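Researcher: I'm preparing a figure for a lab meeting and need a structural model of a single chain. I don't have an experimental structure, so a prediction will have to do for now. The sequence is pasted below. Please return the structure as tokens so I can convert it later.
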Amino acid sequence: MENTLDALSEKSLAQDLIRANQQAEAAEQERLRRQAEHYEQELSVLKDQADRNMEAIAGLHDKLDSANDKTHDTGVRIYRNVQAVILDEQKKQTEAITAEVARQFSMLYARMDALEKNAEADRLERTQEREQDRQATAALLKQTVKEEGAKEAEKEAGNDKSGTMSILMLVAMIAVLLLNVLMFMGISF
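Model: Understood. Here is the structure written out token by token.
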């Protein structure tokens, strides 16, 4: 009867550990899912801004092309000097627009780099947390095996018949814990 209670207690402990690990993993996955959604939203905003910038650039090029045609026709008909002044001004405006677009693209790339660095840091943190979970589970399993070994030694000293049964129960518990650890690590059978 006592062996059965011990076995149930150990099985309950192992199940509690597995359940706690599963809950922690689920919470971590939910946090990562929310964070990924946040990154996706930020990327979407950045892409929308880039699209608006490209549309503005295309509009400016259309306006510049239209202005070039009108300026050329007027300049040829009226004064060649006026055409030179206008072309100079257009060059300055184009340089200013190009500088602004380059600045905005530089900011966009900096934001994208920061998002990628944050994602990499999150992946590293998840890896470290998984390693810590694995080490804690291994330590718990080691402690459980040690305790069961001590119990078995006590039982063998007092009662040889129940010793065989206890050893079998210990082997079964270790096998169940080992299977759960392997499943936790993503190895399936």
